[in-house]
Amino acid sequence: MLDVRVLNRVFDVIDQNWENNNLIEFCHCRLPLNPEQLEELWDSPQFKERYSEEQLSRKFKSILNPFFNGQEQKEIYCKVEVDNSEPENGRYSLFAITKEMLEADTAYYETEMPGNINRNYLSMLDLLYKPYLYELVFKCSMNELISLVTRDENNRGFDLYPGVWCKVTIEPAGDDNGGDIRNAPRRVEGTLWYSASRPEYETVLISEISKVDQSFANTYQQLELYQNDIDNCIDSNRVKHDYLDKLFCNVRRSRIKVMRVGQANAIIVSNVCRITGNASEKRVFAFDLGLPTPGNVIENDKVATGIIDDADDKLMENTYGRPEALIISHWHSDHFNGIYVLHRDMFFGTNRMIVIAPRYIVNDDNYELTNRLIKFLINKGSIIFVDDVFEYGDRSNKCYYRLMRVNERNENYNENCLMLRINKTLLAGDCEYYAWPAKLFEDNSGNNVKKVNNIIIPHHAAYYNTQGILNCITPIMSSTPKLAIACVGHNTYGDGNPLRDHPVQSVLVAYDHENFDVLCTNNTNIASANFAFEA
Ligand SMILES: [Zn+2]
Ligand SMILES: [Zn+2]
Fold first, then answer.
1. Phi, psi dihedrals of residue 45, rounded to the nearest 5°
2. pLDDT tens digits, residue range 381-406?
3. If you average pLDDT over residues 449-456, what whole number do you get?
4. Could you tell me if 298 and 215 lie in one domain?
5. Looking at the structure, do residues 402 and 478 belong to the same domain, yes or no?
6. Of 8-17, 337-346, 374-383, 493-502, which range is least confident?
7. Which domain does 279 fall in, by range?
8. Ligand 2 center to 225 CA (angstroms)
9. How many whole angstroms from 490 Cα to the centroid of ligand 1?
């Protein structure tokens, strides 16, 4: 048993740092204990009596909260990331981080380093940490952005370009803050987005951009060192046939629910057991988990707008039950950013959610956010990568699935993806039509089954390649009834033009031409946020 005096000293350390908002001391457990004692401490009733997990977690979050908390200005660190599809029209995303977040990340990964003697000191941080999303999205030209760079007496600023970290001064954009953007040319307005669990948004003004200080640069370099082994981990984390067999093989009937999340995909699949036919023995998984956000939901879609605020509950507490696995079709955030709003218990313990994803390709599309999410999932042992074709066919029960890794064009995530066909339903992610593999439409014996009745319409493909749709869907479609679902919303590549919102008219015409009923998620006749159908 821990000595009472030792216990009291520990409580003092925690209480003091709690008072002082000292995250590192608070979380990194610089406590007067050896690792064995520390473990004993976490398990001790005295500790649990004094600090509930909820209390600790609330404190942790309040320290990390990036918003203003009454301040008129604050400095954060940002790295410019460009949406490559329309660089001239300028919708920029800044991956953002605060000093506290950087410290928490660094402390977390430090303890994960092999051979680190502080490994056991992870306990408290492990109890509290999960990946959070912190992003600043705004619209302006690169020149406007550069005009915010502070200059020295020789009128020289530092070079600002994508991939470079900078220090950014932000202010709340409220009315009482002189927030009229037209009268303040040296300002850019954007949306700051944060999610520790529930997503939060705040409109902010960027008023100044400058070089990062050396201490930030050093700490960040340290963090990069901890994160740079993502590629190695991926090789050792291939998906096991066993697992997919369990998830899919007992399928008798699939119910599929498409969530109303703007231009994003969040699809929940419930497989009813083939053997018993008992609905209570179902396997539930998600295929993509994208969030509705102020940027991807069209303004008159009140239902989707309403989901933005409690997306964590809406995505997880659907009527099918909590998904045991998430299949990510590809590494574009509108297909996985719902992970950031999940409750912490989805990442921990034996019931944690397994993430199944295509191998992560390191290329220009890499976002900081994706890297750190993958790193976290690897650390938690929660992610497995698919490199092959997985299939299960049971013709006597008329049941068939095929999960395929498509690897068409290295530079683009849309075609570096997973596609899933369950019976006659195709979950295609954003794979452009030209890259749809013929094998996806074959059965176990290599016969082309050419039967798809239901499809969730891919986002990007829709805009770029209408003729391609006809070329692809015509040969594989079975007879009526056929259903195509479009997850309606804004996108970054459409430059705010409503005619380029998803789905574009030409796509609707193409599907109509093939006698599809097209169901749009923003259809005002549908009161529910979900669309369910049978595969
Ligand atoms: Zn995509
Ligand atoms: Zn998409």
1. -60, -30
2. 888 888 877 776 665 556 678 889 99
3. 81
4. no
5. yes
6. 493-502
7. 232-534
8. 31
9. 13
